[in-house]
Amino acid sequence: MAVDSSLSSPLGPPACEKDAKALQFIEQMTRNADAVQQTVLAEILTRNAATEYLRRYSLDGATDPHTFKEKLPVITYEDLEPDIQRIANGDRSPILSSHPISEFLTSSGTSAGERKLMPTIKEELDRRQLLYSLLMPVMNLYVPGLDKGKGLYFLFVKSETRTPGGLLARPVLTSYYKSDHFKTRPYDPFVVYTSPNEAILCPDSFQSMYTQMLCGLLQRHQVLRLGAVFASGLLRAIRFLQLNWQDLANDIRNGTLNSKITDPSLRDCIEKILKPDAELADFVSDECSKEDWEGIVTRIWPKTKYLDVIVTGAMAQYIPTLDYYSGGLPLACTMYASSECYFGLNLNPMCKPSEVSYTIMPNMAYFEFLPHEPNTESDSPPKLVDLVDVEVGKEYELVITTYAGLYRYRVGDILRVTGFHNAAPQFHFVRRKNVVLSIDSDKTDEAELQKAVENASKLLKEWKASVVEYTSYAETKTIPGHYVIYWELMVKEAEGKWPSKEVMEECCLAMEESLNSVYRQGRVADHSIGALEIRVVKNGTFEELMDYAISRGASINQYKVPRCVNFTPIMELLDSRVVSAHFSPALPRWTPARTR
User: Fold this and answer.
1) Does residue 115 belong to any structural domain of this protein?
2) Beta pairing partners, 228
3) Structure confidence by residue, pLDDT tens digits, 30-39
4) Tens digit of pLDDT for each residue in 314-354?
5) How many domains does the chain fold into?
6) pTM of the model
7) How far apart are CA 83 and CA 80, in angstroms?
8) Is residue 341 in a domain?
9) Phi then psi for 455, rounded to 5 degrees?
């Protein structure tokens, strides 16, 4: 189809006229980022002028940024919790938003250890849908022909709960998948899934995963991309195939659906498309019965062009395992979003995971940035910076004001500015704030812990082994206390062998060598920190950990392995699965820092 030349985009030649308009919209928003931000703030403050929250701070109808920043404090969830609790308990007065709060969106349950209730309004679905509509027009610039096949995406819903006042409380993706925006979405040849809505919307995670995998196998020659929300979700799907391929192959061979699938609408839907196929059943059995699963993704789905998963932040540790199972397929990180707000998208989605940067879309919310300078001592708090005024190379904590009633709210994400697209900044996601290990005066954050695990795991390469999952906790029952790191290992069965005790001890020391100087000083000079310990757990332990979290209300879509744990039942589960424990055999290197 010819594309109107007037709709061309600096990002590249669009695949179709619809894409051209989407790319043009991105250009318009990012070129005029400052003006768009001013308009967004004025709209939010005008419509919500009569809310209790804005009246509490005597904003008096002002809509300019200066008055807004002068009168409204920067807040955390704890500051807002009393207001949120009132809404949850049934107070329908305009506390935070002049528009009725339609539901609460629950946080992942592993961010800072708390499940938070984020208020939202109906029109926010339109805003989220708008950002979703921009993803494929960008991807089509880099990967042609995606309209010639389908996407095998493992998407799940969580059964929602209700607050005492009757409002739904559920994860943001459950809200979206259950909305008409998703269920009655118009046909788009670039966004066709192998999974029917009935499979995605089934609240039973086993039945949902089983039928989504079955549909993916039935349509294996049409699959052009595989995806899940997080990298861990896609690996869970591969593990599911390892455990259930015999039943799946049996269903394909006989053209009958496993009796474990009991959801009536789901059974009815799948039985209409399931026909006996002995050749496909033999193929699945032959591939899945092999000991070596390296490259299994492209062996089963040979036309796959990329994996669509989030592998930034803590998810980066899954990259080697994804590479193993996919044969090194490109990993695409397409968007940046949270329960509080959808923020932006990756305009170069086929870049290396380490180079992923998200362009903030200025129409999504009003954005401010709190300079993150942990090593700088100052009596005065840092001044917040507007979206267009951030500086390349600097790190900031994201602060948002939304249409749904969050005002100057600290999200807790630390971002590093990598550049600009037009006037809109691009950010690399560094980490969640305040995910730390601490024994004494030491403080180890998530990014530092991740780097230490990566460095130590290099010692496993000659054994054909790798770390597939990890978590940690600060053991303070010993004197002195010490870091405990739980590792689940994968060994290539055909050629690898289990790492020796000596190698595991060297891994402990390598982790310590990678940690900050305050930690190493505590080990060497202050003797305030004991030797780091690695506890190797049985294979499948972290799947059990996820199942436990889901049983307690976590969302299968949003679940992320906690990098720090201190909840007793989780500790007991991990310790009951330990197969060996190893301590650092020596002190790490440390010399006193030179004073200026």
Assistant:
1) no
2) 154
3) 999 999 999 9
4) 677 678 889 999 999 999 999 999 889 999 999 999 999 99
5) 3
6) 0.77
7) 6
8) no
9) -65, -45
